[in-house]
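Let's practice the habit of predicting before peeking. Look at the sequence and jot down your guess about where helices and strands might fall. Then scroll down.
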Amino acid sequence: MSALPPCPKCNSEYTYEDGANYVCPECAHEWSAQAGAEAAEEGPKVYRDSTGTVLQDGDTVTVIKDLKLKGGGGTVKMGTKVKNIRLVDSDHDIDCKIEGFGSMSLKTEFVKKV
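Done guessing? Here is the structure:
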């Protein structure tokens, strides 16, 4: 069993040391050993909306600017309410369902808690 931390990007357990860095062979993510230790000491990630209010699973938020969807799927208009959000540790922090659009991921910087 390895004492090295799993990859923060893909959670692979096959990380290895390369000098002062850790490397993930599965996704090629590299991070410093010092940064990995600091992240472990910080605790759980706190998600904040565009105004700095702390968000939690199940909250209702409002979109603060028009968001064009990739693939020509239309535009989510400013003021759209999104109910029952789910916070995830990814490049987009919120998983949700929006009426008329379906499931999608949003960044916390583009929403405001209601």
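How did you do? The mean pLDDT is 87.
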